[in-house]
UniProtKB/TrEMBL annotation, chain A:
One of its GO terms (molecular function) is sigma factor activity. It comes from Nonomuraea mesophila. Keywords: Sigma factor, Transcription, Transcription regulation. This is Sigma-70 family RNA polymerase sigma factor. It holds the Pfam family Sigma70_r2.
TrEMBL record, chain B:
Residues 238-261 have a biased composition (Basic and acidic residues). The chain crosses the membrane at residues 54-76. The keyword Transmembrane helix applies. It comes from Nonomuraea mesophila. This is CU044_5270 family protein. Keywords: Membrane, Transmembrane, Transmembrane helix. Residues 78-105, 235-265 are annotated as: Disordered.
Length: 181, 408
C-alpha cells in the first residue's frame, strides 16, 4: 500500500478506539479525545518510521502526552476509580473466581489494594493483549521490571480475592434471568 | 484465572464511549490530518534495547493462592460415601491379563499409535447438537487452612514491600531485587508457622454440572454438589482436629445462573460456543491455527507441548465436531513429548489409556482417554509427584433443557 493517506486511515480505523479507551482511564472524555487525536497526528508525521507493532507505540505516545498534560497532573482520581466510575450498575453481576463467587465490587476493591503501576500492567496484558515486550515499551521500563509488576499483580489479586471471598459471606447479587423453557 | 477475571473487569462503557467518539470524530480528524504537512523525521526507535528477560516462576497451571499448599504423596484411603477416593499421584495401572499386559513404562511408540487410532475412533462418533452443552465433572484439589497470623503476616509484608518500592522510586533493577527479597520473606513466614511444612493434608472433592448455552446471551448455569473434604489418612484428620478443625470448605452457592459468556479455552479466547463447531477438520489447518494462537501468547516460558495439552483438554470437552477431534488427535500424535503409560484406571474406576507430557520444570500433565469412544475421561496436573488438580469427567453431551442431563 503506497498511499500514505490510505495507510493512515487504516491505522486510525484500527487503533483509534483502543488508544482512546486507554486514555479514558486517565482523563475525562473531552481531554481524552484531544490527547488521542494528537497522538494520531504524531503517527501521521512519523508514518514512514512506525514500528511493526503499532499499538504499543501509539499507547506509549499517548501515555507521554498524558504525563505532560496539565489536567492529568492535577487530577486526583486514580486508575481504579476511573474503572469503578465507568462500570455501570448492570455490570455488577456475580461471577466465579476459582471456587469462589465474587462480585464486581469485591474485585474492584481488591484492585484498590494494588499499586497503580501494577494495575496498569494487568490492563496492558489483559485488555490490550500486549506481550511483556510491547507493554514494557508503552510504560517505558525494562521487560524484566514489567514482568515483575505483572506477576505481582496476579499474585496479589488472587490472594486478595481469596481473602475477600472468604471473609465476606455475601449472597449472590445481580439480575436474575428468566429460565429457558 | 486471574487474567480472565481481570479482562472481564473492563467496563462495557469504555467500549461504548470509544465507539461513539470514533464515529463522531473520524471525518474531521482525518480531514485535519491530511491537510497538515508531514515533516519527514529521522528514523525513531520506539522500543527499548533488549535486556535479558527475568524468568519468573512459570508453569504453574493451577492458580494457587498464597495459602494453598501442595501436599505429600499418598493414596487417599477411606472412600467417602458412595464415591471412589481420588488417587493422590498417578492413576493406577490396571492389572495384566494373560501374562503379558501393557508395560507400565511410558512409551513413545504406544502414544503415537494410540492417538492415531483414537483419531479414527473419534471420526466414527456421530455429530450431534442441542441448546446446551452439558458437562459433569468431579474435581479434586488440595486445600489447607493457614491461621490468621499467616494472613496478617502476608499483609504486613505486602505493606513493607510497597513502602520500600515507594521509597526507592521503583527503578527497574531495584524493583526486581525487592520482589525477590519479599518472596524469600514469604517463604520464611510459611516456615516460621510450620517449620516442617503443613502438618496435615486435605483435599476438596466436589462435583460440578455446567450448562453452556449455544445461543449467545443464553443462560449459563453452574451447579455444585457433593462437596466434601477428604483426608488421605486418619492421622491427617486427627492433626486437622488438633489444629482446631479449621474450616476448609468456603461457602458458595449451589447453583449460579447468568448470561455471561465464558471462554471454552483460556489459552484460546477466540473460541466460543458459537464458533467451536466451525473449527478446522483437517490436521494441517487446525495445527496452523493453534500454532498461530500459540505464537500470540505472552512468553516467556511458554511451551507448545503444554499449550497443546491444555488446548486439547478444552477442545475434547467442548462441543467440537468429530472431524475437529480427529484432527486434534492427529496433531497430538505428532508431538514427540507425549508418552503413554498404557492401560490405566481413572479415579472413577473406568479403564482408559494414560497419556502424559512434562513441562520444562518437571510438572506432568496427564490424560486418560477411553479407548472405545476416544472420549476424555480425566486429566490431571502433577507437580513433584502430587496432584495439584485432577478432574474426572463423568458425563458430557447436548441437551435441550437447562437443568436437564443429556439422554445417553
Amino acid at each position: 500500500m503506497d498511499d500514505p493517506e490510505e495507510r493512515f486511515t487504516m491505522l486510525y480505523d484500527r487503533y483509534y478506539r483502543n488508544v482512546l479507551g486507554y486514555v479514558l482511564l486517565r482523563v475525562e472524555q473531552n481531554v481524552a479525545e484531544d490527547v488521542c487525536s494528537e497522538t494520531f497526528l504524531v503517527a501521521w508525521r512519523r508514518l514512514d518510521d512506525l514500528p511493526e507493532q503499532v499499538l504499543p507505540w501509539l499507547l506509549g505516545v499517548a501515555r507521554n502526552k498524558l504525563a505532560k498534560h496539565r489536567e492529568v497532573r492535577h487530577r486526583r482520581t486514580g486508575l481504579v476509580e476511573r474503572i469503578a466510575a465507568l462500570t455501570s450498575e448492570r455490570e455488577h453481576v456475580a461471577w466465579d473466581v476459582a471456587e469462589h463467587v465474587v462480585d464486581r465490587e469485591q474485585a474492584i476493591s481488591a484492585l484498590r489494594a494494588l499499586p497503580e503501576k501494577d494495575v496498569e500492567a494487568m490492563i496492558l496484558a489483559t485488555w490490550y493483549g500486549l506481550t511483556p515486550d510491547q507493554a514494557a515499551t508503552v510504560v517505558g521500563c525494562s521487560v524484566r521490571a514489567f514482568n515483575v509488576r505483572l506477576h505481582r499483580a496476579r499474585k496479589r489479586l488472587t490472594g486478595r480475592l481469596h481473602q475477600e471471598a472468604g471473609a465476606a459471606r455475601r449472597p449472590v447479587r445481580g439480575t436474575r434471568f428468566a429460565e429457558e423453557s | 484465572m486471574t487474567d480472565r477475571m481481570f479482562a472481564r473487569l473492563k467496563p462495557d462503557e469504555l467500549d461504548e464511549l470509544t465507539e461513539e467518539s470514533y464515529r463522531r470524530r473520524r471525518r474531521e480528524d482525518l480531514a485535519r490530518t491530511f491537510s497538515s504537512t508531514r515533516n519527514p523525521t529521522p528514523a525513531w526507535r520506539a522500543f527499548m534495547a533488549r535486556r535479558p528477560m527475568f524468568l519468573l516462576a512459570t508453569g504453574t497451571v493451577a492458580a494457587v493462592a498464597a495459602g494453598a499448599v501442595v501436599v505429600s504423596t499418598g493414596v487417599l484411603s477411606g472412600a467417602p460415601a458412595g464415591r471412589t477416593p481420588p488417587v493422590a499421584a498417578e492413576s493406577t495401572p490396571s492389572g495384566t491379563t494373560g501374562g503379558t499386559g501393557a508395560s507400565p513404562a511410558a512409551t513413545r511408540v504406544d502414544a503415537r499409535s494410540f492417538l492415531l487410532a483414537a483419531a479414527d475412533t473419534a471420526l466414527r462418533e456421530p455429530a450431534a447438537s442441542g441448546h446446551y452443552w452439558y458437562v459433569r465433572q468431579r474435581t479434586t484439589h488440595p486445600t489447607f487452612h493457614w491461621p490468621e497470623k499467616f494472613w496478617t503476616g502476608v499483609r504486613e509484608l505486602q505493606r513493607q514491600e510497597q513502602a520500600e518500592v515507594d521509597r526507592t522510586g521503583a527503578k527497574d533493577d531495584e524493583l526486581v531485587a525487592i520482589n525477590e527479597k519479599y518472596n524469600k520473606k514469604l517463604a520464611r513466614l510459611r516456615k516460621s508457622i510450620y517449620p516442617d511444612g503443613p502438618p496435615y493434608r486435605a483435599y476438596v472433592v466436589e462435583s460440578e454440572e455446567r450448562w453452556r448455552p449455544k445461543r449467545a446471551g443464553g443462560t449459563h448455569r453452574v451447579k455444585s454438589e457433593d462437596r466434601e473434604v477428604v483426608f488421605p489418612t486418619p492421622q491427617d484428620e486427627a492433626t486437622w482436629k488438633k489444629e482446631g478443625a479449621p474450616k476448609l470448605l468456603e461457602d458458595k452457592p449451589r447453583s449460579v445462573d447468568d448470561d455471561l459468556p465464558r471462554p471454552l479455552s483460556i489459552s484460546n479466547m477466540d473460541i466460543t460456543m458459537q464458533n467451536v463447531g466451525d473449527l478446522p477438520r483437517s490436521k494441517k489447518a487446525l495445527a496452523g491455527r493453534l500454532r498461530a494462537r500459540f505464537a500470540e501468547l505472552p512468553g516467556p516460558g511458554k511451551e507448545f507441548d503444554v499449550y497443546l495439552w491444555q488446548t486439547g483438554v478444552d477442545l475434547m470437552t467442548a462441543p467440537t465436531t468429530p472431524g475437529t477431534r480427529a484432527a486434534l488427535f492427529r496433531i497430538l500424535a505428532d508431538q514427540p513429548g507425549i508418552t503413554s503409560s498404557g492401560q490405566v484406571e481413572d479415579t472413577a474406576g473406568r479403564k482408559g489409556v494414560g497419556l502424559a507430557v512434562k513441562s520444562g520444570d518437571g510438572t506432568e500433565f496427564q490424560l486418560v482417554i477411553n479407548e472405545d469412544t476416544a472420549e476424555l475421561l480425566e486429566y490431571a496436573v502433577v507437580e513433584k509427584g502430587e496432584d495439584t488438580a485432577r478432574v474426572t469427567f463423568e458425563e458430557f453431551g447436548w441437551t435441550d433443557k437447562l437443568g436437564r442431563r443429556p439422554h445417553r
